[in-house]
C-alpha cells in the first residue's frame, strides 16, 4: 500500500494511487509512505525519485553504520519500531530515505505512529514544510509512544510489588511474569537506544534545517530520561525477583523444618518400640502387669520431651 502526501491549493492532499506521479511535480511532494508495498509500487517510487530504495535486509541490520548514513544526494536512516502485543513486544524495521526534501518511509506492518503523524501533518501542514520536518515528527511521536510503553511496564511492576506487600501466595506465574517484564524492559531499552543513535546522526548532519535543532535537543533529553527510567525498572524487577525467590526459599525451608521436626520427634518412640520388639527369652517387662502401658507411656513421654526441647530452644 502506498500513501502520497503533496502540497496543492494551500493544503496537503493525500493520494493512494501511483498514477498521480505522472502529473505531479517532484517539488510538491512531501512524503511517500510505503506499507508492505508491491513491486510495482516500489518501482514507481524509484522511477519518480530517480534512486533505488533501501532493501528490508539492510533495514534489519544492527551495525552502527546502518542506523544513519548520508550519500551525495540522500539521507538514509533505519530504525526498529516496537509493536506491543498482549504480553510481549515485537520489532518492525522501518527505513527512512530523504531525497530532495522528500521523505520516503518503508515498512511491512501497520504502525500507530504513522497514523497519528499523518493526522497531525494534515491538520497543521504549515509546521511540516519539508520531509525533514515530517521525519523528525515521526520520531517525536514514536518517542511519545515509547514513553507510554515505559509507563505501562512501570504500572505492571507496581502491581506485582503490591502483591508482594499483601503477602499473597507465591506461585510460578509471578516469577514468569517478572521474567517476561524483564525481557520487555530490555527490548524497550534497546529500542530507545536505537532512536538515540538515529537522533545523534541527525544532530550531526548539516542537511537538516536549523529550525529543527531545538526540537531535536528536547527529543534527545527525553530519550535519555527514558533510558534512565528503563534502567530503574530493570533494577526494580531484579529486586522483586530476588525477593520472591527469597520468599520461596523461606517457604521451602519451613516445609523441610516441619519434616525434620516430625522425624526427630518420632525417633525416640521408634527406638523404644524397636527395643521392646526384640524376641529375647529373658525380658523382665514381659512379666510385668503394667509392662505394655509402661512402654507406651515411655514412648509418649520421649516425644513430649523432644517437643519441649525444641520449644525451649525456639526451634519451633
Automatic annotation (TrEMBL):
This is Magnesium transport protein CorA. It catalyses: Mg(2+)(in) = Mg(2+)(out). The chain crosses the membrane at residues 258-278, 290-310. Mediates influx of magnesium ions. InterPro entries: CorA_cytoplasmic_dom, CorA_MIT, CorA_TM1_TM2, Mg/Co-transport_prot_CorA, MgTranspt_CorA/ZnTranspt_ZntB. Keywords: Cell inner membrane, Cell membrane, Ion transport, Magnesium, Membrane, Transmembrane, Transmembrane helix, Transport. It is found in: Cell inner membrane; Membrane. Belongs to the CorA metal ion transporter (MIT) (TC 1.A.35) family. NCBIfam families: corA (TIGR00383). The keyword Plastid does not apply. It comes from the Bacteria. Pfam families: CorA. One of its GO terms (molecular function) is cobalt ion transmembrane transporter activity. It comes from Williamwhitmania taraxaci. Its main location: membrane. PANTHER family: MAGNESIUM TRANSPORT PROTEIN CORA. GO terms for cellular component: plasma membrane. The keyword Transmembrane helix applies.
